[in-house]
Design a protein that fits this description.
The protein is of the alpha+beta class and about 550 residues long. The protein has three domains: about 105-250, no CATH class; about 255-445, no CATH class; about 445-560, no CATH class. Helices cover about 60% and strands about 10% of the residues. The strands form five sheets. Strands 1, 2, 3, 4 and 6 form a five-stranded antiparallel β-sheet that branches. A four-stranded mixed β-sheet has the order 5-10-9-7. Strands 8-11 form a two-stranded antiparallel ribbon. Strand 14 and strand 15 form a beta hairpin. Helix 15 runs parallel beside helix 21 (about 430-445) and helix 19 (about 385-395) runs antiparallel to helix 20. Residues about 1-5 and about 490 have low confidence and may be disordered.
Length: about 550
């Protein structure tokens, strides 16, 4: 066995024992017993830990003890708790409140190590890149710390430097967490409701992306391009030539924190204008860009001269595909017109629904939930509150919603709260309405319809091309006896509906094609009565194709089925 592999196994065992000891110390020994992991505890601690902490265990709630576990175990687990704090579909509100308290700040690492990392990454000495470089960091977190500096041309910047050896620690912790998640799925039946391994897949992608500063630089540049023509929103510039996978040099932003109301007033800022611009900026992110800053708070939102708003920190970004953007626009329009059925339908479209979910029960609970808001004037309606309440109802009925939609709801609630403090009379509905309507109108434009038609044609072509090969494989497996048909058809409804929809589209498209070909033949033969010098039957066939084709396109875009 290679020595590095052996060292990694030993390191994992030591770290595993540390994790299990901390879990047991804070009263989670029963879970370790259920998972068959108690034997991995150090012998001298196996029976003593829970006894020693018995009084604390009795005094604190489970969410409070979970908070202590994550805090004590360090960076990876703090990040894990922060991710869970954004997932009301996975943990209860009590856990969310505790995990939101997790502070991602620890003691800084020495300047000499910071210097070595910068010089190694850039291949130059510090003096060759920066005219000045503050030795004391302005912030130190679990993944990185930040130093102020000045470039040779006098530009003031901040330099984010990844912690030394943090990648190895996180990879070790991820290995162990994956192991624990797999054991939990196997040994604890209730864990299947939460999909522990799936959660770990999502978390590992998120934290590895956060450790790759190149990805963060890409996010900054994309975000900056989206607002390049908006004179009221400032996104700091990234200096690519002084950045790498482990360091990132960013233009320094000097402003007033958006929630420092006294400082804003003293500087003569218009708080109402700032509030409107803040909401406007995030509506553009939701409805125009499909790409939004998913971690807004007073530490990364600043007000600059001219009532401009600077948005910094692109470590956590949300992505919205076309389908989700359409649904969100429909949700906003439904809220504006208080169309309860439409709002519920959009939630169902956004979620993943199993065969065990009682849709009618969900609808009834959703109606009861939304009824509380029907008599509230639009100017007083808090969109974030409505979305959060309906979101909690969907979670109650085990409707799994996409993480990016959960990020959006959380982001909207925070932004709405910040804007409300700046301007209590702000009407977020009025600001959001034109963006939602504009998006839906754009979806019906000829250009978008043409792109949608191209997509349908491409999908149909691929299906027809692959169908003979796929059918041949199925027939061969059937003949050889390798194809096993299980007498269990739960969950096949979505597949059957998809097959039915694709079949209808193909059949309809073939009919349209036959009509078009027949009309072309009639025009070529020039038979029958004429109109404008052309065969009337041929022109009528083309007109029928146009009408039916347009109807098919609209039906596909609006509902996804004929």
């Amino acid at each position: 066995m290679p020595i590095h592999r052996f060292n990694r196994i030993i390191k994992n065992i030591n770290r595993l024992r540390q994790i299990l000891t901390v879990l047991s110390k804070h009263g989670f020994g029963h879970l370790l017993a259920m998972m068959g992991m108690s034997s991995y505890l150090p012998l001298r601690r196996r029976f003593a830990v829970e006894k020693e902490s018995g009084q604390e265990v009795k005094r604190l709630s489970i969410p409070q003890r979970a908070y202590l576990v994550l805090e004590e175990l360090g960076p990876t687990f703090i990040k894990f708790g922060q991710v869970l704090s954004t997932r009301p579909d996975l943990v209860s509100q009590e856990f969310i409140e505790e995990f939101c308290r997790l502070q991602d700040q620890i003691a800084p690492f020495p300047f000499e190590e910071a210097r070595e990392i910068v010089e190694t990454q850039l291949g130059k000495s510090l003096g060759e890149v920066y005219a000045s470089f503050d030795q004391e960091p302005v912030a130190a977190a679990s993944i990185a710390q930040v130093h102020k500096a000045t470039l040779l041309d006098g530009t003031r910047v901040v330099v984010k430097i990844q912690r030394p050896r943090i990648r190895n620690l996180i990879e070790t912790d991820l290995d162990i967490l994956y192991t624990l998640a797999s054991i939990a799925e196997r040994e604890i039946a209730e864990s299947h409701l939460y999909d522990p391994v799936g959660i770990m897949d999502e978390f590992s992608r998120a934290i590895r992306r956060e450790m790759d500063f190149t990805s963060e630089a890409n996010s900054y540049e994309r975000f900056r391009r989206n607002f390049i023509e908006d004179e009221h929103i400032v996104i700091p510039r990234i200096y690519r030539e002084f950045s790498s996978a482990k360091i990132i040099t960013i233009e320094e932003v000097r402003g007033i924190k958006i929630n420092d109301y006294e400082a804003l007033e003293q500087a003569g800022h218009d708080k109402k204008k700032i509030a409107a611009r803040l909401i406007d900026a995030y509506m553009k992110q939701f409805f125009q860009h499909g790409y939004f800053q998913a971690d807004p708070h007073s530490g990364n939102l600043f007000v600059l001269p001219g009532d401009k708003i600077a948005i910094i920190d692109c470590g956590l970004m949300g992505h919205l595909d076309d389908k989700m953007m359409d649904s969100i626009a429909n949700i906003f329009i439904a809220l504006i017109h208080k169309e309860i059925d439409k709002l519920i339908d959009e939630y169902l479209k956004l979620g993943m629904i199993s065969e065990d979910i009682d849709i009618e029960s969900f609808r009834q609970d959703a109606v009861d939930c939304i009824d509380r808001y029907t008599n509230i004037p639009l100017k007083d309606l808090k969109i974030g509150d409505v979305l959060n309440d309906t979101l909690n109802n969907a979670i109650k009925h085990q409707i799994k919603l996409k993480p990016d939609f959960l990020f959006l709801v959380k982001t909207l609630m925070i932004i709405e709260s910040l804007a409300g403090e700046l301007d209590p009379d702000l009407n977020i509905i009025e600001i959001s309405k034109p963006y939602a309507k504009s998006l839906l109108q754009e979806r019906m434009s000829p250009k978008h319809l043409y792109r949608a038609l191209q997509k349908v044609v491409l999908e149909t072509t691929n299906f027809l091309r692959d169908f003979p090969h796929d059918l041949d494989r199925i027939l061969k497996k059937t003949k050889s006896g390798k194809l096993k048909i299980i007498n269990e058809h739960k969950g096949l409804e979505p597949i059957l509906n998809t097959i039915d929809r694709v079949g209808n589209r193909i059949a309809f498209s073939l009919v349209l094609g036959m009509i078009a070909i027949s009309s072309s033949i009639i025009l070529y033969l020039d038979k029958g009565p004429h109109l404008f010098g052309y065969s009337f039957l041929g022109l009528f066939g083309y007109a029928m194709c146009a009408v039916l084709g347009f109807w098919l396109l609209i039906a596909i875009i609006r509902s996804g089925r004929l």
